[in-house]
């Protein structure tokens, strides 16, 4: 195996395929990247026990000759070492040669590395086939869907199913739901394809895919396919395969209130800043509880330290409250993350008393519902 490759294109491919290799894996071979070179270009594959990413670097990109002077072949090279060596080189073109299947000689004409290489036959046989129910989606819409829901998934492994983003499609719509029991995010988007499926995908992996898409330029659409055991994403010469989270997702539709007794319409930024200012009392405490006291005359946010007699309060401007006077306490971190996920200047919060879950909605986007459970004090 031997080739010369444009350094910028090589770095781009390495950054994409190396993402799964950054996670610690009990299988040591997954710390390596699988490189395959043929007459179509260079294919890079990185994987762990949950995720695999395969990306292809073609021989030419428009008028740019990306790969030249090549001899086909396959090899495995340490992902971390390969990435660091190519990043530190300064030449515009990198030459790579595999010697005796055990040495990867890499040079830019000034700097030379001789890295360890492993026979590609040592790599696990991965199922990278695209199967199941497929549909197309705009990358912009996918990123927004993930940003507005994945934050609400659990990061604790006690209940693995709650670490997933539940995706369900029917009658031309896709619904994404995430919850950690204390909060919930529900987002609905319209699809061009009328498909039916249910898949529980790791919210962390969905977030990684969204970040990857944000880093790419000019990628407007993606293809998603869901099967009983995995979900695949295809975009820009790249294939992402994720294992599904096992288990049945808890029913969440009944959690979303259908009616409300009172409403608070607030400027999102002003409400966030007020919560942030009163919450400084919790810098050395585990509690993040703030109280919202609302009446048609004013809206006040307050906090009280559990370790001392210190208090803080602030009247929130640019608010309009409709309903009977209400005091409600909540974890301000959960509410702040939901307001940020709404991605709007104005939010409307609906209440059904001090002990019932309340919702955060956006007037211009009725496809999104964010739910937070209050705290009894």
Question: Explain this structure to me?
Answer:
The protein is of the alpha+beta class and 377 residues long. The chain folds into three domains: 2-122, DNA Polymerase III, subunit A, domain 2 (DNA Polymerase III, Chain A, domain 2, Roll); 133-253, DNA Polymerase III, subunit A, domain 2 (DNA Polymerase III, Chain A, domain 2); 257-372, Roll (DNA Polymerase III, Chain A, domain 2), CATH 3.10.150. 18% of the residues lie in helices and 44% in strands. It is built from six helices and 28 strands. It has helices at 7-17, 79-88, 139-149, 203-215, 268-278, 332-342, and strands at 2-6, 32-38, 41-47, 51-58, 60-61, 64-65, 67-71, 73-78, 93-99, 103-107, 112-118, 133-138, 164-170, 173-179, 183-190, 197-202, 221-226, 230-235, 238-243, 262-267, 289-294, 299-304, 311-315, 319-322, 326-331, 346-351, 358-362, 365-372. The strands form four sheets. Strands 7-1-9-10-11-8-2-3-4-19-18-17-12 form a 13-stranded antiparallel β-sheet. A nine-stranded antiparallel β-sheet has the order 16-13-14-15-28-27-26-20-24. Strand 21 and strand 22 form a beta hairpin. The termini are far apart. 36% of the residues are buried. The mean pLDDT is 95.
Write out key terms for the chains shown.
13-stranded antiparallel sheet; DNA Polymerase III, Chain A, domain 2; elongated; nine-stranded antiparallel sheet; 6 helices; 3 domains; alpha+beta
Q: Layout of SSEs?
A:
Blueprint: E1 2-6, H1 7-17, E2 32-38, E3 41-47, E4 51-58, E5 60-61, E6 64-65, E7 67-71, E8 73-78, H2 79-88, E9 93-99, E10 103-107, E11 112-118, E12 133-138, H3 139-149, E13 164-170, E14 173-179, E15 183-190, E16 197-202, H4 203-215, E17 221-226, E18 230-235, E19 238-243, E20 262-267, H5 268-278, E21 289-294, E22 299-304, E23 311-315, E24 319-322, E25 326-331, H6 332-342, E26 346-351, E27 358-362, E28 365-372
Antiparallel strand pairs: 1-7, 1-9, 2-3, 2-8, 3-4, 4-19, 5-6, 8-11, 9-10, 10-11, 12-17, 13-14, 13-16, 14-15, 15-28, 17-18, 18-19, 20-24, 20-26, 21-22, 21-25, 22-23, 26-27, 27-28
